[in-house]
Each structure stands twice: as structure tokens, then as C-alpha cells.
């Protein structure tokens, strides 16, 4: 049966309208927000920038996929300062569209913001802060994809005593929870490996004069000085070791001292400082991440934490895709129960929300004023 011109026109309009409606239903997605907090200014910005970029890459990829929501990032600076971090956390929880967040390189900042996320039932994954106290709190909303400082100290202590034959160590740390826990962990690990801690001293964050402490340490003639704090104070200690004639004595630390800011502050006086850094075991997804990161055109390198923030964001996205966003309690439980295969390898969380990730370690030494990977 032939259709009249009028019927053909009506059918065409109906088909076009149906197509437009179908296209609208396919394209229309609710918008949600996911937060990121990290140090984007100050002496630790190097760590935060790489992490931020890893986070943004994950969200960008989600928006280019069949993810059921349009995801908008909310990126905030904590300047590695607890007060600034609290302000950033409050901004996130007071935004009704933010459903989850990831954050923090500095442990003191994480410990300050965790109560805020907990009170507001917002799922939160820590991508960088490594104090054991964070997951020891066992806050249901909080998980962590990075190993604790205790785990980071294990390969360093074993390498120093067993591989390099160092037997005596002096410890200098800051008085924060991070510093105290580093001192406790490294002391126990050195003792277990057959070494000995001959002195242990601490000073508040912000201390600039370590000469009295170092003069005392010099008389003990330790095989190495272990520093249990972060970048600025670490650089001052290393420079002042040179001032008291200890420039030939190695200085050891974990990821808290591994930063371009350290070499910027120390110059050639930093030579001989050694940092033990978490190494992610090789897997097929690492190459894909590196390629995607380079293709994305970020100005800053991914650094040590880009992968951690990338997987943290993808764990949030996976849980959201599977559980929706209406019930944050349910979402937090789903994150705790997740079995996620990502750039870091297989991420599962223990009963406290701490990753079970098995790690190796790389060591880097400052040579000619620059961090260089150490072969042995």
C-alpha cells in the first residue's frame, strides 16, 4: 500500500522524534562529583600534582566510557597542612553532589579529616598518607590503597643490615605521629635484622637547627642516620650532617624524604641520602597507565603517587557503577569488600580498610645533587 505524501511526512517526523528521544535517553546522564585532596602548593606539591593527575585521568577515562554517570572532579589543595585539609574536607562534604573522595599525602592531614568524612558517611580512600594510625582507627568510610610506613620500612631495614652490612644506626625524627611510628617501626626492624639503634632523637616539625643533635650523634659513629620525617626537615638534617663532618655517613629514609624539593634544598650536600620507595610489582596494566598518562599531556610527572591515586579513583568508580550513589553506607561497604585488579596489582582490603597489597622496594640515592636509582 502506497502512503500519501501527508502520511509519509508524518511517519518521517515520528521516526525523527523517536530517534531524538532515544539519543537523548542514551546521552542524558546524571552528574556526580568525586573529590580529590592533596598538597598542590608548598614543599610537597610534587607528590600531590602527580596524584591529582592520576585521579583526573581515571575520571576522564570514565567519562569517555559507558560509565552510568557524568563525573565531575572537585580538586582541592591541602598544602600538607591539617587546618587547610580540614577546610577542604568540609567543602567536599557540604557539596550535595560529591558522593566520594580520595586524598592526602600527609598523615597528619588525613588524621584530621577522617572524622569529617566519617560523620558525613562519605566514602574516602587514602592514596598517599602512610601512618598506621589511619586504618588502625577502623573508620567504616575509610580505606587506603597505599601500604603503611611499617611496610615501607621493612625492605629498607633488611637491605641496610643484611645487604649493606650496616650494624649501628642513629634515628632522628619529627615528633608527629608519622615520626613516632617511623622510629618505632625502624627500631624494631633493625633489631630483628641483627642491627642496633645507638641513639634516637626527635624534634618538632618546623625545627631548623639540628646541630646539637647531630654533634651528639657524631660521637656515637653510627653506620647510618635514619630520618623519620619528611622533606624540609630531612633536607636540613642532611645539610647539617655535612656541617658537623658527617657527609660520608649515609642518611636513610622512606618515601617521606623522596621528593625533588629535597635535592632543591640540599644541592650537592644531599649526596649520599638514600630513600626506599614502594615498588609496584610489574603487571600488564602499568604500561597502559603510563601510555595513557603520557598521551593525556600532563605537565607534571606521575611521580610515586600517580598510580595510587589512579587506582583509588577507579575503585571508587567501580563501586559506584555497581552500587549507585544513593546509599553511601552501602557504597562504603562495597569498597571494603572489593577485589580490584588495577595498576597496583590486586587490591583487597583487610578488616580495618588497609590494603593487602604486596610490595617490593626501589632505592634511590642522591648523586651529584639529583635522585638516582640505586642498583644494589
What does the secondary structure layout of this molecule look like, with pairings?
Layout: H1 5-27, E1 31-38, H2 45-63, E2 70-77, H3 82-93, E3 98-103, H4 107-119, E4 124-126, H5 133-136, E5 142-144, H6 149-163, E6 168-174, H7 177-193, E7 196-203, H8 211-220, E8 224-227, H9 231-243, E9 251-253, H10 260-266, E10 273-279, H11 284-296, H12 306-323, H13 328-336, E11 340-342, E12 345-347, E13 360-367, E14 370-374
Parallel strand pairs: 1-2, 1-3, 3-4, 4-5, 6-7, 6-8, 8-9, 9-10
Antiparallel strand pairs: 10-13, 11-12, 13-14
Helix pairs in contact: 2-12, 3-4, 6-7, 9-10, 12-13
Q: Briefly, what is this?
A:
The chain is α/β, with parallel strands linked by helices and 376 residues long. It contains 13 helices and 14 strands.
Amino acid at each position: 500500500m502506497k502512503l500519501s505524501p501527508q502520511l509519509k511526512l508524518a511517519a518521517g517526523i515520528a521516526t525523527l522524534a523517536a530517534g531524538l528521544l532515544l539519543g537523548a535517553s542514551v546521552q542524558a546522564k546524571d552528574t556526580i562529583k568525586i573529590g580529590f585532596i592533596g598538597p598542590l602548593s608548598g614543599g610537597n606539591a610534587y607528590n600531590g600534582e602527580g596524584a591529582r593527575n592520576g585521579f583526573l585521568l581515571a575520571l576522564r577515562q570514565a567519562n569517555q566510557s559507558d560509565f552510568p554517570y557524568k563525573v565531575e572532579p572537585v580538586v582541592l589543595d591541602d598544602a600538607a597542612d591539617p587546618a587547610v585539609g580540614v577546610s577542604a574536607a568540609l567543602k567536599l562534604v557540604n557539596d550535595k553532589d560529591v558522593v566520594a573522595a580520595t586524598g592526602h599525602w600527609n598523615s597528619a592531614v588525613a588524621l584530621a579529616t577522617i572524622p569529617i568524612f566519617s560523620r558525613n558517611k562519605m566514602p574516602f580512600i587514602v592514596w598517599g598518607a602512610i601512618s598506621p594510625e589511619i586504618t588502625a582507627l577502623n573508620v567504616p568510610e575509610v580505606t587506603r590503597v597505599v601500604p603503611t610506613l611499617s611496610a615501607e620500612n621493612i625492605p629498607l631495614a633488611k637491605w641496610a643490615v643484611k645487604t649493606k652490612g650496616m650494624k649501628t644506626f642513629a634515628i632522628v625524627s619529627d615528633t608527629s605521629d608519622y615520626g613516632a611510628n617511623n622510629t618505632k617501626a625502624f627500631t624494631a626492624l633493625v633489631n630483628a635484622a641483627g642491627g642496633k639503634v645507638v641513639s634516637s632523637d626527635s624534634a618538632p616539625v618546623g625545627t631548623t637547627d639540628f646541630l646539637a643533635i647531630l654533634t651528639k650523634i657524631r660521637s656515637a659513629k653510627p653506620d647510618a642516620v635514619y630520618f623519620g620525617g619528611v622533606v624540609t626537615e630531612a633536607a636540613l638534617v642532611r645539610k647539617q650532617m655535612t656541617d658537623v663532618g658527617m657527609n660520608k655517613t649515609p642518611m636513610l629514609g622512606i618515601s617521606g624524604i623522596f621528593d625533588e624539593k629535597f635535592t632543591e634544598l640540599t644541592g650537592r650536600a644531599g649526596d649520599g641520602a638514600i630513600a626506599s620507595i614502594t615498588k609496584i610489582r610489574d603487571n600488564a596494566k602499568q604500561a597502559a597507565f603510563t601510555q595513557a598518562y603520557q598521551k593525556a599531556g600532563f605537565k607534571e610527572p606521575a611521580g610515586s603517587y600517580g598510580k595510587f591515586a589512579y587506582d583509588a579513583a577507579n575503585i571508587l568508580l567501580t563501586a559506584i557503577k555497581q552500587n549507585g550513589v544513593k546509599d553511601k553506607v552501602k557504597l562504603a561497604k562495597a569498597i571494603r569488600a572489593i577485589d580490584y585488579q588495577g595498576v597496583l596489582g590486586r587490591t583487597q582490603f583487610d578488616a580495618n580498610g588497609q590494603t593487602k597489597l604486596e610490595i617490593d622496594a626501589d632505592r634511590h640515592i642522591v648523586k651529584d645533587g639529583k635522585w638516582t636509582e640505586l642498583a644494589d
